Amino acid sequence: MTVPQPDLQPARSPGAQDRGPLVLALPKGRILKAVTPLLDQAGMAPSPDCLGDNSRKLRFPTQNPMLDVVRVRSFDVATFVASGGAHIGICGADVLMEFDYPEIYAPLDLGIGGCRVSVAQPASLPHDPQEWARWSEVRVATKYPAITRRFFAARGINANIVHLHGAMELAPMLGLSRLIVDLVDTGSTLRANGLREVETITHITSRLIVNRTALKTRPEEIGALINGFRNALEASPPAAEKTRAEQSS
Ligand SMILES: Nc1ncnc2c1ncn2[C@@H]1O[C@H](COP(=O)(O)OP(=O)(O)OP(=O)(O)O)[C@@H](O)[C@H]1O
Ligand SMILES: O=P(O)(O)OC[C@H]1O[C@H](OP(=O)(O)OP(=O)(O)O)[C@H](O)[C@@H]1O
C-alpha cells in the first residue's frame, strides 16, 4: 500500500555547502526528559533553557560547539530530519513507522520511551478474533492512520480512519469509532476511560535517526555523534531508563 507523504524536496541539500553546526532535532516532552542524561554523558548537553518550560526559543547551543539542538513536536522530528533541515534527531519508532521516510537511517535504539502501539476497545465489549475475520471494514480513531491501515489491511479489513491528534480514548464512548489505535504503557489511560487493550501492533522505543544525505556529506562529524551516543549508552544502559529519567527530574 502506498502511504501518502509530504513532498520532501529539500529546501537545501543538507551539509553540501553548510559547514556550520550540525542540527539535532529533539522532541519536547517525555523523550527530551529521558534523553537528557544520555546527552550529558555524550558531551552534547543543550543549554539549560532548552529543558525548561519558560523559553520561547526553539534552537539552542550545546556543549559541543559543532552541534545545535532544535526542540520540535515529537511527530515533526522525523519530518525535520527527512527534509534535511536537521541532520540527526531522536524520536519514537512509532513516528518512524507512521511516516516510513526513505531519507531516514535509524542506526541506534536508545532504549528509552518504551511503550507499544495497540488496538483498544470498550472494556464492556467481548473481543473475539474470529469476529474480526468476518469484518470487511471497521471505524478506528487514531493519530497513526498509516500504521492502522496497514495492520487492518493485513487482516483483510478496511480501516475507516477518524484522524485525531489526541484524546482518542473519547472516540468509542462518543460514537466516533468502534476501536482506537494508540500508545499504551501502563494501561492506566485506557482503564481510566473504560477501554482495554485487545491487540498489540508493535513494541516501541526511541531511536537515533540520521538524514542519509547528511551522513554521506559529513560522515566524520555524524559518525562521531553516533559513536558518542553509542558510548554513552554503553556507559549508562537502557535498563537504567527509569532511574535516569527520575534523576533528571
Ligand atoms: N506513555 C508512554 N510511555 C512511554 N513512551 C511514550 C508514552 N507515550 C508516548 N511515548 C513515546 O514518546 C513519544 C512522544 O510522546 P509524547 O506523549 O511525549 O508526545 P506527543 O504528545 O505525542 O507529542 P506532541 O504533543 O509534541 O505532538 C511517542 O512518540 C512515543 O514514542
Ligand atoms: O498506558 P499509559 O501509561 O497510560 O500511557 C499511555 C498514554 O501516554 C501517552 O499520552 P501522554 O501521557 O503523553 O499524553 P498526551 O495525550 O498529551 O500525548 C499516550 O498518548 C497515551 O494516552
Automatic annotation (TrEMBL):
It comes from the Bacteria. GO terms for biological process: L-histidine biosynthetic process. One of its GO terms (cellular component) is cytoplasm. The keyword Cytoplasm applies. CDD domains: PBP2_HisGs (cd13595). GO terms for molecular function: ATP binding; ATP phosphoribosyltransferase activity. Residues 73-228 form the ATP phosphoribosyltransferase catalytic domain. InterPro entries: ATP_PRibTrfase_cat (IPR013820), ATP_PRibTrfase_CS (IPR018198), ATP_PRibTrfase_HisG (IPR001348), ATP_PRibTrfase_HisG_short (IPR024893). Pfam families: HisG. Gene3D superfamilies: Periplasmic binding protein-like II. PROSITE patterns: ATP_P_PHORIBOSYLTR. Pathway: Amino-acid biosynthesis; L-histidine biosynthesis; L-histidine from 5-phospho-alpha-D-ribose 1-diphosphate: step 1/9. Keywords: Amino-acid biosynthesis, ATP-binding, Cytoplasm, Glycosyltransferase, Histidine biosynthesis, Nucleotide-binding, Transferase. The keyword Cell wall biogenesis/degradation does not apply. It is an enzyme of class 2 (transferase). Residues 1-20 are annotated as: Disordered. Its EC number is 2.4.2.17. Lacks the C-terminal regulatory region which is replaced by HisZ. Heteromultimer composed of HisG and HisZ subunits. Belongs to the ATP phosphoribosyltransferase family. Short subfamily. Catalyzes the condensation of ATP and 5-phosphoribose 1-diphosphate to form N'-(5'-phosphoribosyl)-ATP (PR-ATP). Has a crucial role in the pathway because the rate of histidine biosynthesis seems to be controlled primarily by regulation of HisG enzymatic activity. PANTHER family: ATP PHOSPHORIBOSYLTRANSFERASE, ATP PHOSPHORIBOSYLTRANSFERASE ATP-PRTASE. This is ATP phosphoribosyltransferase.
